[in-house]
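Lecture notes, continued. The same structure-token format from the folding unit now serves as the input rather than the output. Read the line below as a description of shape only.
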């Protein structure tokens, strides 16, 4: 799909089509070049269907799914930060390291949030299933 040049004043469906192309390119790049992104997608592929099978209220099911998507979102932001820093310079600089570390910390917080959601919501249900 050809991307619309940024200087073109696209509107409506044409703008949405261009945005969809940029989105697809970003996801393809992350999938090809970011091992953590692939691992998190795999986890989503396992846990999101599991969330749909759990006998929990819809809102709790939504929290489980959104917590997984939050991890993917944080990973994409982290990758974007790393790419921008590397674009500026490959030289080591304390602020570059700090930006990359903060991006990594954001992913860790998202993972912790997701793990807590799964522990609190799915944990008791899964324990009950296994104790039968």
């Amino acid at each position: 799909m050809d991307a619309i040049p940024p200087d073109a004043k696209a509107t409506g469906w044409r703008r949405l089509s261009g945005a969809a192309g940029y989105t697809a390119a970003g996801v393809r790049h992350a999938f090809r070049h970011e091992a953590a992104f692939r691992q998190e997608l795999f986890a989503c592929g396992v846990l999101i269907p599991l969330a749909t099978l759990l006998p929990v209220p819809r809102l709790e099911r939504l929290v489980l799914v959104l917590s997984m998507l939050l991890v993917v979102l944080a990973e994409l932001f982290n990758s974007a930060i790393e790419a921008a820093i590397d674009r500026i310079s490959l030289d080591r600089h304390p602020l570059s390291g700090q930006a990359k570390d903060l991006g990594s910390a954001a992913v860790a917080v998202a993972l912790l949030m997701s793990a807590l959601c799964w522990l609190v919501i799915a944990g008791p249900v899964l324990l009950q299933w296994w104790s039968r």
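Point for the exam: DSSP finds four helices and no strands in the chain.
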